[in-house]
Amino acid sequence: MRWRQWRVAHTRGCVFVKIDPDVRELAEGVVLRRKLRRRGWRFSAGQIQFKNTAVTDLRPDAGLLLAAMKSKWRYNIRLAERRGIGVRQGGDDLAAFYRLYAETGERDGFLTRPFAYYRAAWETFLRAEDDAANPAGALLLAEHSEETAPVAGLFLFRYGRRAWYSVAPAANDAGVTCPTICCNGKPCAGRKNRAAPSMTGGRAHAG
């Protein structure tokens, strides 16, 4: 595996290859790190993804998902619904989603890179969505009928029977939280995104 990755990286002119395994840090992560070190990998001091994550089981229906949430989250979801917030699956809205992402990064103090950096990954996963054998992605956008731009968003990366997201950006004045997108967006994403039974999330940002 190491040499195959090296050949691909060399062919594409990469300086180095960086991976972020989806394992528990204090359990299988320790074993995996030892194996990787023996094969020539080096642990990076600069981590890309947020260290703390949460896993949500998406198999229950919306009512059970709501019941398992904190009361404040349920309140925020219902408040957003009363204010006319709806969630749809996007496709050609990557620039609008990036503007939300950059706005959130500036407000909350985390690093954001140029649009082209993210677009390459987002478009690759969106194109793969029509092939069930491939990793795929889905863009979910929370919108208000009286607004011309989305107020929050979420990009799901799917591989196998799990989906991941790292940041759920929201506009400064949106007042929309990530649970709104996860819950209201489930029916929308389920048909197109194979209804991945679990989702790993990083950080939600409300305006």
Give the helices and strands, then pairings.
Blueprint lengths: L1 H10 L16 H11 L15 E4 L4 H6 L3 H12 L2 E6 L3 H15 L6 H13 L8 E9 L7 E8 L2 E7 L9 H15 L5 E7 L3
Parallel strand pairs: 5-6
Antiparallel strand pairs: 1-6, 2-3, 3-4, 4-5
Structural write-up:
- It is globular and about 55 Å long.
- The protein has helices spanning 2-11, 28-38, 62-67, 71-82, 94-108, 115-127, 178-192, and strands at 54-57, 85-90, 136-144, 152-159, 162-168, 198-204.
- It has 207 residues and is of the alpha+beta class.
- The chain has a 6-stranded mixed β-sheet.
- The protein has 7 helices and 6 strands; from the N terminus they run H-H-E-H-H-E-H-H-E-E-E-H-E.
Summed up, what is this model?
With 207 residues, this protein is of the alpha+beta class. The protein has helices spanning 2-11, 28-38, 62-67, 71-82, 94-108, 115-127, 178-192, and strands at 54-57, 85-90, 136-144, 152-159, 162-168, 198-204.
